[in-house]
Amino acid sequence: MAAPMNITEIEKKILFQREKCRSLEKFETVKEIKYTEFFKQYLFPNIPCIFTPNITRHWKSRQDWVLEDKTPNFSLLRSKFGEAIVPVANCGQEQFSSHPKKDMLLSEYLDYWENYRSEGYPGNQPCLYLKDWHFTKAYPGYEAYITPVYFQSDWLNEFWDTLPLDDYRFVYMGPKGTWTPFHADVYRSFSWSANICGKKKWIFYPPGCEDMLKDNLGNLVYDVMSPDLDDQKKFPNAHKVKGQMLEVIQGEGQIIFVPSGWHHQVYNLEDTISINHNWLNGCNIDIFWKHLQDGLQDVKMEIGHCQDMDGWNAQCQLILKACAGIDYSQFIKMLRVIAEHRIKQLKEIRKISHTATVLQTDNIEVHNDGQIIDSACKQTSNVEIHNEGQIIDSTCKQTSNVEIHNEGQIIDGACKQTSNLEVNNEGRIIDSAFKTCCNIGTDFSLTEMYRALTETVDSDEGQGASCIEHCEQNCDIYVDKTNNSKNVPENIESDLNKCDPSENDHQRKGTCEICEHNRTKKTLSENGGIGKCEHFVNCVDSSEWCESDYLLFDLYRIRQVLQIIISDDDYRKLELECSDSAEYILNEIKLYLS
Length: 594
Known about the structure:
The protein has 594 residues and is α+β, with helices and mostly antiparallel strands. It has a domain at 31-282: Sandwich (Jelly Rolls). Helix content is 30%, strand content 22%. The strands form five sheets. It has a nine-stranded mixed sheet with strand order 1-2-11-8-13-6-5-3-4. The chain has a nine-stranded antiparallel sheet with strand order 14-15-16-17-18-19-20-21-22. It has a four-stranded antiparallel sheet with strand order 7-12-9-10, with no helix packed on it. It starts with 6 loop residues before the first helix and ends with a helix.
């Protein structure tokens, strides 16, 4: 019987990454970097940063909504969007730890703003802030901006776009002096905020500090800059986190990345327009679920005196949705939609990869002059085989690590690892193990994570195991039990030393058939799917991921959270349709992976 997924160990590693943010001393400024680097350094460990203006310099909003003197272009905004109804908050009033809002025509708000500005921002007039305007929903064809690649893995808006509801893409604009009280973002989501014009001051506290910033009645501080925080009778614990505060100034064109659960307060130091998104993905979905669980417990505590009423659990979910904007069933529906999308995307990638394999290998011939020719259209590709046996791209003259040796096998020149690929008599490239045409140059993206998701290793000694087993290291080493062939790189000893097995009930001891050393082998799967997968989290630090890897990461995290949901007592009390249940989604993921 396959071993169950060890969620605890994975969570420990993720939480360890997140703990790094508590010792953060300042915001890091980031230029344009690879998505992989952003994922590893900021998104996965939940650490804030600020991007330079280069990312936004070509946005339509930055070019059209701002005058040469760097102030808002009121005339254009009025002519293009003046008839829009927008939500406007009064920053001089407090209501439920926020500012009360009312709807206005944008043209009316811009009239107020211009007048307020011309009079020098007088203190005896209302300080009004246009907030949470669903601009993209209202003007889908305008393309005021392009969501940066770092923020495009967005489950929240991906799901909300399937519903007849508003999204979580906003425009904010307001005069100097407008501000937002101390808060954490909706659903404990990530957010990003790009300044189109103007300047903001952000004040941050790392997750956990908010508990120290509550008064003696348990209410979160409204204004984190208030002198009331110095009153230990009212805020008895605030002094404990005084050194944890981070402050950053955001200029025109810069983008702030706000991690999940970081409480913050924001001031507009100048007349400012900004574009903001709230978003979720596999990196913080567990934080969202925990926040939802805590919200339900708060509801149950508030109406605990009604516990004996019929339908009490359903009533709790109804109140939860009214307060939090989402309940358990809708959260699970979101996971289902994202899982379905990821499975569809992965199938498309595999289909394209397979098609490319057929197209690139069926008609390939190796001619006498060393060039690789497509025998169907007689067109010479850019790939050449040189005298040294190396394959060269004749366009960029870049040498790959692939060599063709005397035996006709294709060798990786970097690690000297022999693959099963051969050039047969017809000039085709053949996989000698399975006698099928394969593709050179197509990213198969079979990473450590993919193996963790798909391999099956039975806990019974040697019985029912997968025909290809993987020795759990960050190297590509396999044994094929069908023909006993081995692919072993020369640096096997150094790679073996990277293994750090720990004792648990789901390990089995024996001789590793690959490295021929006595090793404790970790089980990799549960019911044909995700197994212990500790190296999956480790590979975030060590591997360059491709598109399919991130899609598989999403499936991994969805499955992990669903396993947690199934064990939740309040979930078990729900009356859900079969297709809306966590068990159904888990089974769909299992069917795809197997």
